[in-house]
Amino acid sequence: MATKPSELTPANFEDNRxxxxxxxxxxxxxLKEADQxxxxxxxxxxxxxxxxxxxxxxxxxxxxxxxNSIVVITVRKDGNIxxxxxxxxxxxxxxxxxxxxxxxDIFIKKSERKGHLGLNLIRLSEEELKNLGVKxxxxxxxxxxxxxxxxxxxxxxxNCVKYSKYFE
Length: 168
What we know:
The protein is built from 5 helices and 6 strands.
């Protein structure tokens, strides 16, 4: 479906003044470094009202990369991961010849959320996904962390509203 990170010239954004770099990366490398970020993200989204415990299926992410069905874009400052965006790639049942991307997670450390960093992450992700043949990108926004103003600024529109219910 998509090209592997090693076969790719990634979309890059560099801000040498602030030592920021946004790029596509191999999921295995990200998994080695981003455990604390996953925990921070989970704590912010769940806010103590956890519906399910954090239990990241790392092997599934590696398998998805091996099947070219996941894209990981990172934000690094001074070489350290301070943010990421994960996209699953798929062919919808209704549009079997068109690649869609679902944003599974997007996160930037609270202390680093300034300027246009989130917008740059979204725009560079778009560029990378378009280069892979993706025709539509979907984001889910939670009421806890509503980043819809950034998505609107990037040209996104409300497509559907999702509701969920958790069973114990």
